[in-house]
Write a structure and sequence with these properties.
alpha/beta; 134 residues; seven-stranded mixed beta sheet; 2,3-Dihydroxybiphenyl 1,2-Dioxygenase, domain 1
Length: 134
């Protein structure tokens, strides 16, 4: 349906903050104290963020370290689908086409349901259904 979110994945969120917030002036904030800077107010996007690498590792693998046998991701992009059934079908289609999911569809604490894979370029690609966006 649309691109849900774009995030750079940073091993050094402080340096990334200097570029995106201090220098470029993007209105990124962390309302929850989680160290994930983000905004829904960057024109042209629904969501833009600086995702700490440790948080990406936790979201995909339940651990703070990115697995050494996989490319370290530089960015994340998520594509929104119409509903949960479409998400489940998309995950099955990706698997049938030979793509290895980092994890199957699962619900995040904020209500989004997402399945993720690592693209050939080293980006985390998510297919998601976020009820709040519908």
């Amino acid at each position: 349906m649309f691109v849900t979110s774009v995030a750079v994945i940073s091993p050094d969120p402080g340096r990334s903050r200097q570029l995106y917030v201090d220098t470029l002036g993007l209105p990124l904030a962390d309302e929850t104290g989680s160290a994930y800077l983000h905004s829904e107010e960057v024109p042209g996007t629904r969501h833009f963020g600086i995702w700490p690498l440790a948080q990406a590792a936790r979201a995909c693998f339940g651990q703070d370290e990115w697995p050494g046998h996989l490319a370290v991701p530089q960015a994340s992009i998520e594509f929104e689908v119409a509903d949960r059934a479409a998400l489940d079908a998309a995950a099955e289609e990706l698997t049938a086409a030979g793509h290895d999911l980092l994890h199957p569809p699962r619900e995040e604490p904020w209500g989004q349901v997402v399945a993720r894979l690592l693209s050939p370029e080293g980006a985390i690609v998510g297919v998601s259904f976020a009820p709040a966006l519908h």
